[in-house]
Amino acid sequence: MMLRRGFILFLPRLVGLLVVACCSMSIVYMLACTPKGDNQQLSLPRVHSPTAKEGYEAILQEREEQHRNYIISLKKQIAQLTAELQGRTEQLKNMQNQYPDSLDIQLDHSKPEKAQANLLAFLRSQVDKAEVHSGVKLSTEYAAVPFESFTLQKVYQLETGLTRHPEEKPVRKDKRDELIEVIELAVGSLNKPDGVSKAKPHVYTASDFVEGIYRTEKNKGTLYELTFKGDAKHQFKKIVLFRPFGPVMKVKNENVNMADTLINVIVPLAKRASKFRQFMQNFREMGIQQDGRIHLTVVYFGKEQMNEVKSILENTSKSANFKNFTFIQLNEEFSRGKGLDVGARFWKGNNVVLFFCDVDIYFTAEFLNSCRLNTQPGKKVFYPVLFSQYNPSIIYGDHDSIPSLEQQLIIKKETGFWRDFGFGMTCQYRSDFINIGGFDLDIKGWGGEDVHLYRKYLHSNLMVIRTPVRGLFHLWHEKQCLDELTPEQYKMCMQSKAMNEASHGQLGMLIFKQEIETHLHRQKLSSKKT
Fold it and tell me: Which residues form a coiled coil (predicted)?
């Protein structure tokens, strides 16, 4: 009886202990099932609450739902990664099929190291196919892929797209990010220790960047050539990078010393003494005073105005203490090709950079460095695209408001255009010019000889660097369309003259000038009445 009574008294305590044990086990289970990093805290119902059971069931159901969603999310990510991997595999298989002979790309996923090596070999083969180390033979002048030049602030472009701006601050994010990435990579490469020199290395920054050129060949990749300031005056660092539609690869890192690189500027001339005087002012400031590593060769045709031209040359020589010039006189009809050819062959010194120039050209000392950096004997010739000036009288209106020549030389669509159809201004080493055969001397007068020489270089293994440059300008002068021309030639001449006079917008303002003035007059009368 006493035992039964004691059991009855102990039973409530046992039930209470079992309830506490169950609650403890539930808490431990929920803590163990909670994913790591989940900071969400769940409020547990109190043990003695009448809804404790329903609360625990709700919590367990919610936790189960979270795990189910988590598993579904993982499955989606796995499916996306699988699809992306399959897409990449298909792309690489297409590459393999496209180049079955030149490269054997085997994407064996069981051997990732071999697959990576084959892929790297493919990317390097893209460098070999592009014009990085040497030029390739091209069929016509239209086959050459031009470069575009850039600085830290601006891009000078031929394919202007809808903006029609010959220069722009890159507003497109992809272009801006691309060039920033390339400059940063070049700076990082220049600052890597070479392990050879014990001297304290020069630390390069983006401010040391001088200029760069780049072009994209759609079936190969993008080639970048960047020039940085060197350790001393007239010394530069040049780094070549290539993006084979993949990571940028360093191709070359070399020192370029231009301290002793002489440029022979060759100018063919007949009459035009006043233009020659203007040319010599530019030559003296940029060539003699700022650059100093320059020679001038003037090939003069005929005798009319010859003494005036020689006097201008001699006065500049005396006032600037400049002796590096040659004057050659030819008693024959003017031929630009003949004059340049004679001037190039007359040189008897060491191999020299030749800059074929006209008397109506303005250049900067910066351009002369570009001329040196983009030529290499047996390797490269330079065909810059110059900026052609519009008629200042149309651009600025009243004659009294026309600014000085230096202030006019601004690269904007209102002031001029890239003369991408002209091939007359070019830089090359004399040895390359002689080896290619020089000019066609059967061509008389102006025109034709420059394209003929350009095609010779394109048909050779020399690399032709074609890019717009910001330091070379064609000064506006009136174009004469002679009466002896045929009606078709005269029409073409007038079209060319119109293109050199002003932009489409400015010519439109001239055409509708009367209509505009009538509108302004009406507006003036209307304002007086009110």
Answer: 71-98
